[in-house]
Amino acid sequence: MASKAKTRRSARPGFATRAIHAGQHVDPTTGAVMQPIYQVSTYRQPALGAGWKYDYARTINPTREALERALADLDGGLEARCFASGMSAIAAAMNLLRSGDHVIVSRNVYGGTYRLFEGLLRQFGLAFSWVDTSNLRNVEAALRPETRMLYVETPTNPVLGLTDLAQAGRLARKAKLRLVVDNTFMTSYFQRPLALGADVVVYSTTKFLNGHSDSVGGAVITAREEDARRIQWIQNSVGAILSPMDSFLVLRGLKTLPVRMERHDASGREVAAWLSRHRKVRTVHYPGLPTHPQHALAKRQMSGFGGMISFDVGSLATAKRLLKRVEICALAESLGGVETLISHPASMTHGSVPREERQKIGVTDALVRISVGLEDPADLIADLDRSLSA
Ligand SMILES: Cc1ncc(COP(=O)(O)O)c(C=O)c1O
Fold first, then answer.
1. What pLDDT digit, counting tens, does each position of 331-375 carry?
2. Which of 60, 62, 67, 103 is most buried (CB neighbours < 10 A)?
3. What is the DSSP code (8-state) at residue 12?
4. Are 323 and 331 in contact (CB under 8 A)?
């Protein structure tokens, strides 16, 4: 018995335990069990050249530092760095590249990522090839001598296409590319890209990681010392840091990540199954449905399917009617909160993607995306049913 208890004590704690405790220390001054919000810009140093760790709050802040330790732990990374938004986290990861480098990107990514790459980074000498990464032969075919990065979102926003991360990791190693994965939809609770061969994971913490629709933020998790140092340097040089208050909010959100993700997943499965039987719904994109073309891969590389669903209702007019009639589901940008959010990707999240590109990736005018929240699924289904059937 004694040796069993000892074994249990020395084993790495489970995910839910780490979501609550990893990277956090009880405040030595007061015993406060929550990480205090260090709302401060600078620190009094004991003496010139004393090597005081905390020098200036753009560079280091104890609240942000606790969140960064927690996020790195949950993803199995070496380090995490937090940024003012998901987009600034993605921009920081792209700053690992140099002018002249070529990047292969999943054809379907969040519209803001497309805007950043094509609208801004291209003018600084980066080249992008947009390919369907659900088939990695397309990536091989797009390789150039100057290719330095493979950037994937899996599942993709909004059509929930998957990339085989283990295969992508092998390909990236062989071709000496950095594999960067946007893991916003799954979080480290359902999918751990670094364990499957990724080098860098990026997040919009605005979504499921924070989970309460009350903070905008982002994170970059690195696996290698060289990348960790560079991202730290970029965070300090560019200065797009996550505020102490937002760091506190995300830390608070992380503590319930496992229970929230379980519920998003259970309700997501229920709503997706119901939608797939509805006569007004043409197609449902949800990796948990056996009809999803990559359902087997989803079961292999994710431990849940999450709460993101998109579905085609046949016409823009039907989509508009549905979005106007819903009462519990809120018509809004964003996702991953406790409340159910419903949106029209073609005109909202993916409005910055040219129409013909949208058509290629299946973001039609009749596509509706839903981020299934934590309400009673029966109420969500009733809301959708009433709004679809009207
Ligand atoms: C998958 C994905 N990545 C990144 C972002 C950008 O994050 P933020 O809005 O926090 O800048 C979003 C935003 O919707 C997203 O859905």
1. 999 999 999 999 999 999 898 889 998 988 889 999 999 999 999
2. 67
3. P
4. yes
**Residue 193, preceding bond cis, omega within 30 degrees?**
no
The residue written with tokens 């140092």 in the block is 229
Tokens 């509805």 belong to 278
User: 138 phi and psi, to 5 degrees?
Assistant: -65, -35
Q: Which of 109, 56, 27 is nearest to 361 (CA)?
A: 109
pLDDT tens per residue across span 69-104? 999 999 999 999 999 999 999 999 999 999 999 999
pLDDT above 70 covers a percentage of the chain that reads 97
- Judged against a pLDDT cut of 80, whether residue 146 lies above it is answered with yes
Distance from the CA of 110 to the center of ligand 1, in angstroms? 7
Residues whose beta carbon lies within 6 Å of some atom of ligand 1:
85-87, 110, 112, 153, 157, 182, 184, 204, 206, 216, 218, 349
pLDDT at 26 over 60: yes
C-alpha–C-alpha distance, residues 306 and 156, integer Å: 12
Asked if 58 is an active-site residue, the reply is: yes
Please give the single-letter amino acid code of residue 371: S
CA distances, 103 to each of 50, 107, 116, 134, 143 (Å): 43, 12, 13, 16, 9
- Report how far ligand 1's centroid is from the alpha carbon of 89 (Å): 10
Average pLDDT, the chain: 95
Q: What pairing do the DSSP bridges indicate for beta strands 127-131 and 102-106?
A: parallel
Name the residue among 179, 265, 243, 238 with its Cα closest to residue 38. Answer: 243
The DSSP code sequence of 120-179 is IGGGGT-EEEEE-TTSHHHHHHH--TTEEEEEEESSPTTT-----HHHHHHHHHHHT-EE
Single-letter code of the amino acid located at 337: G
114 token code pair:
């497309």
pLDDT at 4: 44
